[in-house]
């Protein structure tokens, strides 16, 4: 997942515009957490280097949409910010050193005569050096102009294992993991 901040989760193959039906946002746990409160910082209990395995499927289990493994570095007190202001989710939930439980909703008229209702639920449990997170995003469409837009649902299950402590030089570590090529371009490295 490209921005696995606390519990790496993800989901969303849900269209937000008719023309964008094939490319969907993937909200992360950190985005949901930042919606719960103005500023959210990574708790010390989550700090470290995590190896994550994620499986994204349709809610009915008919299709596997994505499977991957990657590393994610989380630094204590790193500010988690939402990178996409397109959605104005209303969220309720709780966050602790061991549990995350969040439900978010977002309703908008995507065009005249068609309303989109997004629902995003995330539950995660950290137990020592491991965590399991399950996120579900569903979209329902209502209105005479929705045409061929169909209700949809995606579920992501993430298993994480802490494989290293928080690095000594954690300050300045990007919150979102990025490929080395992107980092070199961004910071002008010739290495």
Automatic annotation (TrEMBL):
Keyword Signal: yes
Signal sequence coordinates: 1-20
Keyword line: Signal
Key word Signal present: yes
Source species, domain of life: Bacteria
Protein's name in the database: DUF3617 family protein
């Amino acid at each position: 997942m490209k921005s696995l901040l606390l519990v790496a989760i993800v989901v969303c193959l849900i269209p937000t515009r008719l023309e964008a039906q094939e490319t969907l946002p993937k909200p992360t746990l950190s985005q949901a957490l930042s919606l719960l409160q103005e500023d959210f910082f990574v708790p010390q209990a989550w700090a470290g280097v995590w190896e994550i395995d994620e499986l994204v499927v349709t809610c009915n289990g008919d299709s596997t949409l994505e499977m991957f493994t990657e590393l994610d570095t989380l630094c204590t007190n790193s500010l988690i910010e939402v990178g996409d202001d397109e959605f104005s989710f209303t969220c309720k939930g709780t966050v602790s050193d061991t549990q995350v439980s969040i439900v978010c909703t977002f309703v908008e008229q995507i065009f005249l005569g068609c309303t989109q209702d997004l629902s995003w639920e995330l539950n995660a449990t950290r137990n020592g050096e491991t965590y399991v997170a399950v996120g579900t995003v569903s979209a329902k469409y209502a209105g005479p102009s929705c045409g061929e837009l169909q209700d949809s649902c995606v579920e992501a299950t993430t298993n994480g294992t802490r494989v290293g402590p928080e690095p000594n030089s954690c300050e300045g570590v990007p919150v979102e993991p990025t490929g080395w090529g992107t980092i070199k371009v961004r910071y002008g490295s010739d290495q």
